[in-house]
Design a protein that fits this description.
Strand content: 15-25%
Oligomer: single chain
CATH class of the domain at 32-161 and 215-261: Alpha Beta
Strand order of the largest sheet: 3-2-1-4-5-7-6
Number of strands: 7
Order of helices and strands: HHEHEHEHEHEHHHHHEEHH
Radius of gyration: 19 Å
CATH architecture of the domain at 32-161 and 215-261: 3-Layer(aba) Sandwich
Helix content: 40-55%
Bound molecules: S-adenosylmethionine
Number of helices: 13
Structural class: alpha/beta
CATH superfamily of the domain at 32-161 and 215-261: Vaccinia Virus protein VP39
Shape: globular
Distance between the termini: 29 Å
CATH topology of the domain at 32-161 and 215-261: Rossmann fold
Largest sheet: 7 strands, mixed
C-alpha cells in the first residue's frame, strides 16, 4: 500500500467483471473527444501515417467500442479497416454510424480469439481497451500473432504507475474510495454491494476508478512484447497518465527504429516525459530549448506550466 492508503501502483487490480465495465460501450461519451481536436492529435496522426506507409495489409482495431477510432483509421488509408469488440451492442452502434464507409467493417470478436479469425494484418491498434484485457501475455500473443512480418502494434492506455492523480481526481470522495478499494480486495459481490449502498450505480467516476486500477504499466506492456520478439517505442501524454506504445518485430536490420513514430517526435516526447516525471512540472525554458534544438513544436503540449 502507498501512504495514500488507497492505491498500490505496484499491483494491478482487474476490473470487477460483474459491473460490466469491459462492455460499457457508452464509455464513448468519455472517449469521443479524445482523438479529435486535441494537441495529441498531431502526434497520433503522424505516428499512424508513418506506420501505414511502412507496412502493407489490413488494419484491425481491437476493442473498437462504437467505432470512432476505427473510422478515423479508415480515413487515413484505402486499405480495409476492421473494428472488433466483444460487446454486440457497441458493434451494432458502430455499424449504424459507419456502415456506409467503403473500407470499414465491424465484427463482434474477442481479443483472445484473434488468431482464429485474422492473419496478415498490417497494423493492430487498441485504444483505451488494454486495461480490460486481464491476460496481458495472451492478449499480446494474439495481437502480435495476426501481424504480417512487417506489421505494427499501436497501444494507447493509462499508465498505472503514474495514475495516482487520476485516482485522486476521479470524482469519488476519499472514504468511498477507501471502501471500494477494500471491497475490491474482498470480492466482486462486495464491490457491487458497496456501489449500490453508496448510490454510485450510474456514476461515471466508478468507471475511471476501476479502469485505472486495472491499467498496466508501460513497462509491463513493453516486457510482454519483448518476450514475443517485439521492439517497442513509447511516449507519454504530457500532464495525463496515459502512454502511447508502438511495436514491431525486432530484426537484425533494426529497421526504422526511430522511423516509426518519427525520430524527432519520439525524442521530444521522451525527453519531455522524463523531465515531467522528475519535476512534476514543465518549464518554459525547457520547451524553448527543445523547440530551438529540433526546430519543432513538441507534439504533446497539454502540460501545466509550473
Ligand atoms: C474503453 S472502450 C474503448 C473503445 C474505443 N477503442 C475508444 O477508444 O473509444 C473499451 C472497449 O473494449 C472492449 N473489450 C473489453 N474486453 C474485450 C475483449 N476481451 N475483446 C474485445 N474487446 C473487448 C469493450 O467492450 C469496450 O468497448
Amino acid at each position: 500500500m502507498t501512504n495514500h492508503g488507497l492505491f498500490n501502483s505496484a499491483v494491478r487490480m482487474p476490473e470487477p467483471k460483474t459491473l460490466g465495465l469491459d462492455r460499457l460501450y457508452l464509455e464513448r461519451s468519455l472517449h469521443n473527444g479524445l482523438y479529435h481536436g486535441t494537441d495529441v492529435d498531431g502526434y497520433l496522426d503522424k505516428a499512424l501515417r508513418s506506420m501505414l506507409v511502412r507496412t502493407e495489409g489490413p488494419v484491425l482495431e481491437v476493442g473498437c467500442g462504437t467505432g470512432k477510432f476505427a473510422h478515423y483509421l479508415s480515413t487515413l488509408t484505402d486499405r480495409q479497416v476492421c473494428g472488433i469488440d466483444i460487446d454486440q451492442n457497441a458493434i451494432a452502434v458502430a455499424n449504424q454510424e459507419y456502415g456506409n464507409v467503403r473500407n470499414l467493417r465491424f465484427n463482434v470478436g474477442n481479443v483472445y480469439d484473434l488468431n482464429k479469425n485474422f492473419s496478415e494484418v498490417g497494423l493492430v491498434s487498441t485504444m483505451m481497451s488494454l486495461h480490460h484485457f486481464d491476460d496481458l501475455g495472451e492478449a499480446m500473443n494474439q495481437i502480435t500473432g495476426v501481424l504480417n512480418p512487417g506489421g505494427f502494434v499501436l497501444i494507447h492506455d493509462w499508465e498505472r504507475g503514474l495514475a495516482l492523480p487520476d485516482i485522486e481526481n476521479c470524482g469519488l470522495e476519499r472514504p468511498v474510495m477507501d471502501e471500494l478499494y477494500g471491497a475490491h480486495a474482498a470480492s466482486e459481490q462486495t464491490v457491487n454491494e458497496t456501489i449500490r449502498k453508496n448510490g454510485l450505480s450510474d456514476d461515471p467516476s466508478i468507471l475511471t476508478f476501476f479502469s485505472v486500477l486495472a491499467a498496466y504499466t508501460k513497462k509491463e506492456v513493453v516486457k510482454a512484447l519483448d518476450r514475443l520478439g517485439f521492439y517497442s517505442e513509447t511516449t507519454m501524454v504530457l500532464g495525463d497518465a496515459k502512454f502511447y506504445l508502438a511495436a514491431y518485430r525486432a530484426n537484425p536490420l533494426k529497421r526504422t527504429i526511430h522511423g516509426l513514430c518519427d525520430a524527432l517526435y519520439d525524442t521530444v516526447g521522451s525527453r519531455i516525459t522524463d523531465y515531467w516525471i522528475a519535476h512534476h512540472g514543465f518549464t518554459t525554458g525547457t520547451r524553448i530549448d527543445i523547440e530551438k534544438e529540433l526546430g519543432l513544436k513538441p507534439p504533446l503540449v497539454n502540460f501545466k506550466e509550473k
